[in-house]
Design brief:
The protein has about 80 residues and is mainly alpha-helical. The protein has one domain. Helix content is about 80%, strand content about 0%. The chain is built from 4 helices and no strands. The radius of gyration is 13 Å and the shape is flat.
């Protein structure tokens, strides 16, 4: 539970940092504390930790599906802007 709260706090920090930046695509797809594409990764990790904490298999499956799509799409966009 504490891990999920900490991950969501980092997610809020990510958004604060983004809105204080120049709001470029590089800023949007940036990492935070070494976590790649933090805007997509942090909430997925937070919900995954909740699924594990609550031993909820249905939430875990949903989070895995969300994570594959959400993080995957953000990762592809990041690769496109790096070209």
């Amino acid at each position: 539970m504490r891990l999920s709260i900490a991950l969501m706090a980092l997610y809020e920090i990510y958004w604060i940092r983004y809105f204080r930046s120049g709001k470029t695509m590089e800023d949007f797809y940036s990492s935070l504390l070494g976590i790649p594409v933090a805007g997509a990764t942090l909430p997925v990790l937070a919900f995954l930790s909740l699924a594990l904490y609550g031993k909820n298999i249905f939430l875990g499956i949903a989070v895995l599906i969300l994570g594959i799509g959400h993080i995957g799409i953000h990762w592809m966009h990041k690769k496109e802007i790096e070209k």
